[in-house]
Specification:
With 197 residues, the protein is mostly beta strands. It folds into two domains: 38 residues, Ubiquitin Ligase Nedd4, Chain: W (Single Sheet), CATH 2.20.70; 152 residues, Nucleoside Triphosphate Pyrophosphohydrolase, CATH 3.90.79. It contains two helices and twelve strands; from the N terminus they run βββββββαβββαββ. It is elongated, with a radius of gyration of 19 Å. 28% of the residues are buried. The structure holds zinc ion (ZN). The site of zinc ion (ZN) has 7 residues, from loops. Zinc ion binds next to loops.
C-alpha cells in the first residue's frame, strides 16, 4: 500500500482506492475524486573510474550529510537519464562529461525506499575533481582506500563492490539489482568485453 496519507492538492485524508470491490495499490481522495499515486522516484548515479579507482563524493546535504556515496541524485523533469547523471556528476564533483560518454551499467529497484535507480559508468584519464555546493569533498579511491565505514547508503554496497570487481577484471556487464526488505539480488543481464589492453 502507498505511503501517502494526505492528498497533496487538498490535504484531505486519503482512503484506499477501491475499484469494483478490489483494493488497488494506491490511495484515493474522496474530495478531489481522484486516485493519488506514490510513484517511485528515479535516482541516477555515475560510477566514474580512473584506472581502478572510483569517484566518491562526501555529501554536504541531508540526508546522510558528511557520509560518502557514489555521485548521483534525483532525475529532474525533462532530463534524459544520462543527462541527469552527467548533471549530478558535475554538480557534486566538478567533472563535466557529455551524456554520450556515459554507458548504462546498472538498474535497480529499491522497494523499501520507493526508488528506482539507473547507474551509468564512465572512465576518465585524470583524477581532477572538485566538490560543488552539494558535496564537502570528492576523490578517487581504490576498493581498499574507500571509506566503507562512512558510506551514506550501505544498502547499495554490493553494487559498488561489483563495480570494483568489474574494474579489476576489465569485463563489464550490465547489472540488474532488485532490493526489497526480504531480498537482494544482482544479476548480469549482459556481459561485454573485450578486456582493455
Ligand atoms: Zn484531494
Amino acid at each position: 500500500m502507498t505511503a501517502l496519507n494526505f492528498c497533496q492538492d487538498c490535504g484531505a485524508a486519503l482512503q484506499p482506492h477501491m475499484v469494483g470491490g478490489e483494493q488497488r495499490n494506491h490511495a484515493y481522495c474522496r474530495r478531489c475524486r481522484l486516485p493519488r499515486y506514490d510513484h517511485p522516484l528515479v535516482v541516477v548515479t555515475c560510477f566514474v573510474a580512473c584506472g581502478q579507482r572510483l569517484l566518491w563524493v562526501r555529501r554536504a546535504l541531508p540526508p546522510q550529510r558528511g557520509l560518502w556515496a557514489i555521485p548521483g541524485g534525483y532525475l529532474e523533469g525533462g532530463e534524459t537519464l544520462a543527462a541527469g547523471a552527467a548533471r549530478e556528476l558535475y554538480e557534486e564533483a566538478g567533472i563535466g562529461l557529455p551524456p554520450a560518454r556515459l554507458q548504462l551499467y546498472m538498474t535497480g529497484t529499491i522497494t523499501f525506499i520507493n526508488q528506482v535507480y539507473v547507474g551509468f559508468r564512465a572512465s576518465v584519464a585524470s583524477e581532477d575533481c572538485a566538490p560543488g555546493p552539494e558535496s564537502l569533498a570528492c576523490g578517487f579511491y581504490s576498493r581498499d582506500e574507500c571509506p566503507w565505514d562512512e558510506v551514506a547508503y550501505p544498502q547499495v554496497n554490493d553494487s559498488i563492490r561489483r563495480a570494483y570487481d568489474d574494474l579489476e577484471s576489465g569485463c563489464f556487464g550490465v547489472w540488474q539489482a532488485e532490493m526489497s526488505d526480504a531480498h537482494y539480488t544482482l544479476r548480469a543481464v549482459s556481459q561485454t568485453g573485450p578486456r582493455p589492453g
